[in-house]
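Predict the assembly for these two chains.
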Amino acid sequence: MELLEIKNLVVQYSVGRDVVQAVNGISLTVKEGATIGLVGETGAGKTTTALSVMGLVPNPPGKVKSGEILLDGEDLLKKSNKEMRKIRGKDIAMIFQDPMTSLNPVMTVGEQIMEVIQLHEKISRQDAQKKACEMLELVGIPGQRYGEYPHQFSGGMKQRVIIAIALACNPRLLIADEPTTALDVTIQAQVLDMMRRLKETYKTAMILITHDLGVVAEVCDQVAIMYAGEIVEKGTLEDIYESPRHPYTIGLFQSIPDLDVESERLNIIPGMMPDPAALPEGCNFCERCQHATEQCKKQPPVVRLSDTHEVQCFLAQDEKGGE
Amino acid sequence: MGKLLEVKHLKKYFPTKSGMLHAVDDVSFSIEEGKTLGVVGESGCGKSTLGRVILHLLPLTEGTILYNGKDISNPSKTELHELRRNMQMVFQDPYSSINPRQSVAEIIGEPLKVYRVCKTKAEYHERVRELMDIVGLPERYEHSYPHELDGGRRQRIGIGRALALNPRFIVCDEPVSALDVSIQAQILNLMMDLQEERNLTYIFVTHDLSVVKHISDDIMVMYLGVVVEKSAARALFEKQLHPYTKALLSAIPRAKLGGARNRILLKGELTSPIEPPKACRFAVRCPYATDRCAQEEPTLEEVLPEHYVACHYVKEINRL
């Protein structure tokens, strides 16, 4: 069953005279209970995609130009602010990147969890309080710490509180934007382990935004690789990790220092991401791609390699045509 | 090749309201010229403080630092001025460690002005262009300001500035952790090339074991201000002996399928570094800890040749 369907989403930011093309026509489907990893580097448009789903793209300067975001077949982009407020936190919840700044410093953590519950459920204060305590226990924080303030918690603990807030109303879709990037590795392992367990228990669908292909391999079933506002390749975990086809995906894997292999130099992708206010014609990656030819100056086609594996590249089309 | 830097029983304490914070507690090591020592640990383990104390950006509390055989533990102002010519630093955050009101050429050229290296203006400009070329910054950025450049290029400015005086020794404090992977690889390759060309000696401070594996000859793992394991990089990645190092390495998510590895999940978090008890600092989180670990502080001992570990039960745990 499809829970969320994004169709040809285009989001732009107007900065002075420039138009920054943050998201350029991406399509993505999230099935119920599935976890999809949205991978890309800074400026690839991952967070903007997530904010569009939440209806939180800052406007101005941002604007959703076209496309549809369907939750259970209903277009979220057509909803009023009031309707969106009912959906946010209840049907779709989001975990933000920086646990240090996404909590309110002058409210106790318990009250912050309670706030969501009271907003979305008809529930007495006592019951909400009880539920907030349960949520804290669920993410591994003793319920007695209900009345403490965010500054009394460490980074990993704060991120747990944020996860508790996000899960408080049993959302059907959870968007996690770099949930462990700000944490140390041993703490990251704890938080990832917890997220995986909670996901299995509650069957929550999840979009995990990250730049870390290692984190994706641990948590996700599907992967979408983003580059300069487009999804250049998507497929199951096996598709992407075992037979990546887009030159960018391949380059991304090669530039990760490998712990198990001895090598002197790292492979690099030459150059850097194009300025999103002045994207090249045709394929956005062509300036850094070693396989680029004349035809890459035109918009590359989306090639279906299998039922699950799609790649946006002329190279794949040529190879497929030759078979 | 001789030892370029030797550090003996270095301590750095910070006074706080609730007592002394032991940021670096009795750390000793040495680096040979042209080699890289990787210092690894999580936030709060004292790795950055260690780098800063060595460069005298922070005064040390106790201990000795020998540079080229000469004691530089308490240098005078003039001595320090001379030392800085040879010892430089690349900082973590390429956004806040360079002056936003100076152009690229001014930032890279500033050390040259401070040390009056160039006799003529023409020589100065030539040297700045040469440095920009070395770190891979095209000449057209000469008059650009940092805000016009992305993180990777800004970090190149930071490296260019550190290289300006032809130093022999550079402390790199998380130089790539603020960068994207594809850019991170570019910067790491640049730093390795520079080391080879100029026989530079690095201390490479990072939280990322996969980065440090790539660039280091020796690795030192720190936990709450103390060194828990120290060995050649290759030996450490082949076999980790300290329980913390084992957990740290197993916690890294690998970009590979079939991740059903034996992950060691640590309980709890870092304990407080303020007035730590005389005990193993890792004991609270250690799966092997006994009463002895809570009473007696382990010392760093040579368990295998050139492989030092601070753990009471290292032999039992690893069946040595």
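Chain B has a mean pLDDT of 90. The CA atoms of residues 30 and 56 of chain B lie 17 Å apart.
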